[in-house]
Structure formats: C-alpha cells, structure tokens
Design brief:
The longest helix has 26 residues, at 239-264. It is built from nine helices and 19 strands. It is of the alpha/beta class. The protein folds into two domains: 4-16 and 46-248, Rossmann fold (3-Layer(aba) Sandwich), CATH 3.40.50.300; 274-409, Coagulation Factor XIII, Chain A, domain 1, CATH 2.70.50. Helices cover 29% and strands 33% of the residues. The strands form four sheets. Strands 5-6-7-3-8-9 form a six-stranded mixed beta sheet, with helices on both faces. Helix 3 crosses helix 4 (129-143) and helix 4 packs across helix 5 (158-169).
C-alpha cells in the first residue's frame, strides 16, 4: 500500500487585477458593480495554477526529492501533504502522521517558550506528554538551544527557529517527514547535521519528502526525484537522470542567456601584441561539446593570434560557478611545459584525464600573458561556458583522480625498519 497517493492534483489561486487601471476606469468599474451587482467585477480576477494535474505515489520508507526553479510548485506540494492548504481539484491520500518543516516558525506559538512549544508540537502530533518528555533532552541537545529553551520563541533568530523546528520534527517519529529549503537558513555545520539526521531516519525506514536546490544533497539522500516546472511534472525517476533533466531545462538555459548578455557587454582586456580568438571544449573522441559529466576526460583548446614574437607566454583558464566563485584554475605556468616563443596564428591545448568539477554551469576566463607580467596580452573575462552534468558521485565541490591500495602488513613493517635504520 502507498503511504501517499496524489491523483490529478491541482491547486488554483484567484489573482486580483485591481490596481492595474487608471482611477477613472476604477470608478467606472465600481459604478457598474453598484448597478449590476457583485459579479460585474469578476473579470478583474484571473486563475493561477500553482499545481496542475500532478500525479505520483510515495511508498512507505521512501525518500523522494522535489526539485525545480522558484515558483514551480515544490513548496505547494509539501503544504498539501501537510494539510496546511487543500487541493482545488484531484485526489490526495496521506496515510499516517506528518511532521513538517516548511516555513520558519511554522507550528510554534511565539509567546510560548521553546520548552512549551516542544510539548505543544508533540501533543499536536498525538504524542502523550510522557513520550515527549523522554525525547526532550535529545531534542534540545540536537538544536543546541540549552541556554535558550525557556525563552519565548518570539525572541529567537530565524536560525534558532529552524534548529528547534527540525529537532522536534526529526525526533518525534512521524510516519512522514516533510523538509523544505528552510534548512538553508541554518549555518553550514547545522545543515550538515540535519542531512546526517535525515540519512539516519531514511535508513530507519521513515518516509521523507525533501525539497532543495542543493543537487548534491538531493542525489545523496533521495531514491527518487520529481522535477517540477510551472506547476507540472517534467521528469520523474532515478536521481541522476532527473537532475540532468533539470540542469538541461532550467539551469543551463538560464546560464546561456545570462552569458550571452555578459559577453555582449564585456570587452576583452587586450594589448596590441596578441589576442585570444576563442576557446572550445572537446570530448574523448575529439568532438566539440558544451557539456560533459564529472570524471570524464576533457580537452580545452585556446585559439590565439600573436602579432609579434612573444617570449615565455603563459596561457590560463579560470572556471567560475554561477555565483562567481573561482572553483579551479589551469595554467601552463605550473605544468613545467614552458613555451619559449609564440608567433602567428595557432592553438594550444590542455588535456584533463578526469575533469573534477561537480555538476553546475561554469563561466570561464581565458588569459594570455608573459610570465611574471602584471598586465596580460589578452584576457577574456567570463566569455565561455561549460556545463557539467552528474557523473561520478562525489561529495564536495571537486573530484580529484586518485588510487587506493591495500598495503600488506609485512611491507609496512619493512618500511618502518628501513626508516628507523636510516635515522640511526
């Protein structure tokens, strides 16, 4: 039996168009309503569907992730599952108790202390006071709020709200736990702590619905992912495939549009001696690509033209994430392959056996300079784009190729004896 069944579910809101007209038109509309009755103004509203004919099931013990751009309907689904709002059409069946962490402060009474709110939340979930008391110390310790547990929660910061809210929701053992992007409010250490707790609950068989923009966390925690866009399901299934669909449909498209505008308004910094004509990326078969997966081979070619002989030139590529953080940097100055002189039109190539960046869109700077010089011959800031798809499953921001080897105990002892003899 499914613990959640969603069948052709829609959530509709009625939006008012008031304020979009002139004062004269508003007075005329008001007059018509007085003469003709209240329905004369119905044309001043429109229907907006936060969700439209969505269907899916959740199995007991399953962890399902919902991803998509802002406004796609992710939080609406969680609010429907939590019974905070109700559907406009379709059928929704939820079996068992539900604990939710959807909005900062939701479910807490601002005038009550943290302690009182823990017991209040437990009673709402159908727990006896004695049951809550058994878990109380665990909840407070997890939230790290021992000093403030008897303070009214209206004095809590948003981070303190989130810590207490998650701690309560994750320790009262509901049948279904709903977690929204609200966890992003907490600091990095608490986010990591929450993800570890979610993993523990998942392994313990709890059903979890998880909304996040952190694709690494979604891929690690979820067995199945649903990609929503404009209130409809665009893709559903195995995490890596659905995350790739999301990147292709939303993230990469947005980045390409942004990059086109940036390149159009971004002149290169160039002198008269040389210029970079372009950068292109090739796959292992030598075919030009605009995307590749983490861990795949990459070849980058920089096309240049030197208008006069260049002594000791240095080529560099800088890879920036969408939020303008530098993730990695490749330069001929560090490889030991010195280019003594450069002249005319040509191409220089860098080969990476296993490309280490994790999924995302990366804007790339290309630079050509003289070794040790401050000003470059040419520098193309953020003029190239590379999309990285899910490949090797990596935790963190970068994959570094490496090898593991089991060392026989005898070899370790022999090495230790040799080192001791060298020291003596």
């Amino acid at each position: 039996m499914k613990i959640v069944t969603v069948d052709q579910l829609s959530k509709r809101y009625r939006l008012s168009r008031l304020g979009s007209k002139s004062i004269r038109e508003e007075m005329q509309r008001f007059g018509r309503r007085l003469v003709q009755g209240a329905r004369a103004g119905d044309g001043d509203t429109e229907d907006f569907y936060a969700l439209r004919e969505v269907s899916f099931d959740i199995k007991p013990g399953e962890t399902i992730g919902f991803i998509g751009p802002n406004g796609s309907g992710k939080s609406t689904i969680l609010k429907l599952l939590a019974r905070i709002i109700y559907p406009s059409q379709g059928k929704l069946t939820v079996r068992g108790s539900v604990a939710s962490l959807i909005e900062v402060g939701a479910g807490f009474h601002p005038e009550l202390t943290g302690r009182e709110n823990v017991f209040l939340y437990g009673s709402i979930m159908g727990m006896r006071r004695a049951e809550v008391r058994k878990k109380f110390d665990q909840i407070v310790a997890f939230a790290e709020l021992e000093r403030f547990i008897d303070t009214p929660v209206k004095r809590y910061s948003s981070g303190m709200y989130v810590r207490l809210g998650f701690a309560v929701a994750a320790h009262i053992n509901p049948h279904i736990l709903l977690v929204d992007e609200v966890l992003a409010v907490g600091d990095a250490s608490f986010q990591s702590k929450c993800q570890q707790r979610i993993e523990e609950l998942r392994r313990g068989g709890m059903t979890i619905a998880f909304v996040s923009h952190d694709m690494t966390a979604v891929e690690r925690l979820c067995e199945r992912v649903v990609f929503l866009q404009n209130g409809q399901i665009r893709s559903e299934g195995e995490p890596q495939k659905v995350i790739s669909d999301y990147y292709n449909a939303v993230v990469f498209k947005s980045a390409e549009q942004e990059n086109e505008m940036m390149v159009a308004g971004n002149d290169s910094i160039t002198g008269r001696e040389a210029e970079i004509l372009g950068v292109k990326f090739l796959d292992r078969d030598g075919l030009e690509v605009d995307s590749l997966a983490t861990g795949q081979p990459l070849i980058a070619q920089i096309e240049y033209r030197a208008y006069q002989p260049l002594e000791d030139p240095v080529f560099e590529l800088f890879f920036y994430s969408a939020d303008d953080r530098l993730h990695t940097h490749y330069t001929t100055a560090l490889t030991g392959e010195r280019i003594t002189q450069l002249q005319g039109h040509g191409v220089i190539e860098i080969a990476v056996d296993e490309f280490g960046l994790t999924p995302g869109v990366f804007k790339i700077d290309a630079s050509l300079s003289r070794r040790g010089a401050i000003a470059p011959y040419d520098w193309k800031p953020r003029q190239y784009l590379l999309k990285v798809l899910p490949g090797k499953k990596v935790r963190g921001m970068f994959y570094s190729p490496h090898r593991w080897r089991q060392v026989p105990l005898g070899e370790m002892q022999a090495n230790a004896t040799t080192e001791q003899g060298d020291f003596l």
